[in-house]
Specification:
Elements lengths: L26 H11 L8 H14 L4 E4 L2 H11 L7 E4 L6 H8 L3 E4 L11 H7 L4 E7 L8 H11 L2 E5 L7 E2 L2 E2 L7 E5 L12 E5 L2 H11 L3 E2 L16 E2 L10 H35 L5 E2 L7 E2 L5 E5 L1 H4 L3 H10 L15 H5 L10 H9 E4 L7 H19 L1
Parallel strand pairs: 2-3, 2-4, 4-5, 5-8
Antiparallel strand pairs: 1-9, 6-7, 6-13, 8-9, 10-11, 12-14, 14-15
The structure holds pyridoxal-5'-phosphate (PLP).
Length: 404
């Protein structure tokens, strides 16, 4: 029999003491879900409008539509703006696959612009260089909760007649120049309520559209492409049963049970954000106290931005230090500490790289440099500053072990 190369050692299967992210559920959340579960309507009921109104009030947005997940939110954002097959978007390669795959689902082409090597956020100059005749939108991803340079991206969009869309799945509660991300800061904003995100509904998402017509389109697409508005029907309505299916739609609805959880979680968001920001400060202090200077770099806090800290991603010069990232992650896991890499550039993913119409390979030094150095450490609201001390101690010990 031919020798088979051993598989790389897997991370331990047992739950980690400190996963990189997780939800926070308390008695108020359980009570909200129980009330919805024993109510009259499990879907299409009052909890949906209630959650949408609560989100709109928090964000300062006019048009919020909740939906099945963040990927559906992106799909609805693209289609709701009227983007169509043959159109292209420009986005970041340092993002979750869904930013691009939702665009392919809408028949769109995707061009990946290079990013800032420190923040991993879109470099406006790199975006500008990619704008072509088919470009219809710029999709900004606020990586880790750090807002992109929205002023520069909005100016570019305006100059070229493009839509500006925000994948704000990491950035609920973040601010740019004092303005809440999602508060009508752009043409369309997508949010996710996956359990590692700022608030959770188990699975869920929301799309915020600036223009009323785009919002109406999103609502129709969310519910099978069904039109009920009398002014938009092709004939005078013959009766209350009447509706028209006018386009390919989806069932992207979020049920009342989950909307009730969302409203309850949203009420806790200010405390979640305060906890995340306090833990980020604790990380900075512990990294400075426990590690040799320059070994592990905390993420920058840029001016004019309020970071929402979905992730606490540090930078380590793995290549320069001769530290194997996999060995560090396994060593941390052995000490109960989860870690993750956000993200492998999508331009290196077989599906995104090799699909028909994909761009020819070209250098993206910012994305490569960011990916080479990044590592996300545990961050979630129920973590304590004492936990952060323990986690940084595990990091210091593991790094010392590897480097000795
Ligand atoms: C989580 C996430 C999504 C997708 O959201 P789901 O709710 O998991 O579908 C999209 N983009 C980014 C950047 C995300 O982090």
């Amino acid at each position: 029999m031919a020798a088979v190369a051993p598989l790389p050692a897997p991370l331990p299967a047992a739950p980690l003491r400190y996963p990189y992210g997780r939800q926070s559920i308390d008695a108020s959340d359980v009570a909200a879900v129980t009330a919805a579960l024993t109510g009259d309507l499990l879907t299409c009921g009052p909890a949906v409008a209630g959650f949408e109104a609560a989100l709109a009030a928090y964000l300062g947005a006019r048009h919020v539509a909740v939906c099945a997940n963040g990927t559906a939110a992106l799909h609805l954002a693209y289609l709701g703006l009227g983007l169509a097959p043959g159109d292209e978007i420009i986005t970041s390669p340092i993002t979750f696959s869904a930013t691009a795959s939702a665009a392919y689902q809408a028949g769109l082409g995707v061009r990946f612009a290079d990013v800032d090597p420190i923040t991993g956020n879109l470099d406006p100059a790199a975006v500008a260089a990619l704008i072509g005749p088919r470009t219809r939108a710029i999709v900004a991803v606020h990586l880790a909760g750090q807002p992109c340079d929205l002023a520069a991206l909005a100016a570019l969009a305006q100059a070229h007649g493009l839509y500006l869309i925000e994948d704000a799945c990491h950035a609920l509660g973040a601010r740019y120049r004092g303005a809440m991300i999602g508060g009508d800061t752009s043409d369309a904003v997508a949010l996710s309520f996956h359990p590692v995100k700022h608030i959770t509904t188990g699975e869920g998402g929301a799309v915020i559209m600036r223009a009323p017509a785009h919002h109406a389109r999103v609502l129709r697409l969310r519910h099978h492409g069904i039109e009920r508005d009398p002014v938009r029907l092709s004939i005078p309505s013959p009766g209350p049963w009447y509706h028209e299916v006018v386009e390919q739609g989806f069932n992207y609805r979020l049920p009342d049970i989950l909307c009730a959880l969302g409203t309850s979680q949203l009420a806790r968001l200010p405390r979640f954000l305060a906890a995340r920001r306090a833990l980020a400060a604790a990380y900075r202090a512990e990294l400075a106290a426990q590690l040799p200077a320059g070994l592990v770099t905390a993420p920058p806090e840029l001016p004019e931005r309020d970071h929402a800290y979905h992730l606490f991603a540090v930078a380590i010069d793995f290549a320069g230090l001769g530290v194997d990232r996999g060995r560090l992650m396994r060593g941390l896991a052995a000490r109960g500490v989860g870690s993750q890499v956000h993200y492998i550039p999508l331009t290196a993913q077989p599906f995104h790289r090799d699909r028909p119409g994909a761009e020819a390979p070209r250098p993206r030094p910012g994305a490569d440099a960011f990916y080479a150095r990044t590592l996300s450490l545990p961050l979630y609201p129920d973590l304590t500053p004492a936990d952060v001390r323990t986690i940084v101690a595990a990091l210091a010990t593991t790094l010392a072990e590897i480097r000795s």
